[in-house]
Design a protein that fits this description.
Helix content is 52%, strand content 17%. It is of the alpha/beta class. Strands 1-2-3-4-5-6-7-8 form an eight-stranded parallel β-barrel, surrounded by six helices. Helix 1 links the parallel strand 1 and strand 2 (24-26). The longest helix is centred in the C-terminal third of the chain and has 17 residues, at 196-212. Bound molecules: SN-glycerol-3-phosphate.
């Protein structure tokens, strides 16, 4: 499973990218707003740093305007994936941009039917939002499973990009199901390294090393 990092914070992307943990980046208008940066400038900086796909989201609602925005975003770099919402206008934009050879990430997906439409429209990525479904006592992971089944049944090449990931468990659950990509905030990716038994075991090893006077350097 590929790891995308869900942030527009350059320093945080760099830290994970230097460790080989970043196969791509996703942003959205909320994350750009949080960064306080200009969308075109920060997106260009991210594209220069990361070789994988970098999602940049349109802010228009009508298809013609979305298309114009998408074409402008696509010019930033070759690794841009234009992010469009899962609306009828977004699907139209997805089809046109995909036909033009631009990667498209269709976002705000909350149902298997929506994912089916995005695949038919030629999306490179579909972004089902796990956490926001879980927030409503619905089952975000079940949606990932359903989309996996449907795409595999018909050989759709659209990549399942699990989004709105809130915990380290979501990451391994998505990997077990077979999501192609999971995008998560940097703190969630870092939390994947944590285990109480690792901390406990390390404390015991350190205590024994001290007692025995073990010195290596
Ligand atoms: O990029 C979209 C997404 O991952 C949003 O996550 O936590 O705002 O639901 P969240």
């Amino acid at each position: 499973m590929k790891f995308f990092v869900d942030t527009a914070e350059i320093d945080q992307i760099k830290e994970l990218n230097d460790l080989g943990m970043v196969d791509g980046v996703t942003t959205n208008p909320s994350l750009i707003a949080k960064s306080g940066r200009d969308i075109l400038e920060v997106t260009k900086e991210i594209c220069d740093m990361v070789s994988g796909p970098v999602s940049a989201e349109v802010v228009a609602l009508e298809a013609d305007d979305m298309l114009a925005e998408g074409r402008k975003l696509a010019k930033i770099a070759d690794n841009i994936a234009v992010k469009v919402p899962l609306t009828w206008a977004g699907l139209k934009t997805c089809k046109t941009l995909s036909d033009e050879g631009t990667m498209v990430n269709v976002t705000l997906c909350f149902s298997a039917n929506q994912a089916l439409l995005a695949a038919k429209a030629g999306a490179t990525f579909i972004s089902p939002f796990i956490g926001r479904l879980d927030d409503l006592n619905l089952d975000g992971l079940e949606l990932i499973e359903d989309i996996r089944t449907i795409y595999d049944n018909y050989g759709f090449e659209t990549n399942i990009l699990a989004a709105s990931i809130r915990s380290a468990n979501h990451m391994s659950d998505c990997a077990k199901i077979g999501a192609d990509v999971a995008t998560a905030p940097p703190n969630v990716i870092k939390a994947m390294a944590n285990h109480v038994l690792t901390d406990k075991g390390l404390a015991a090893f350190m205590a024994d090393a001290k007692k025995a006077g073990i010195s290596i350097l």
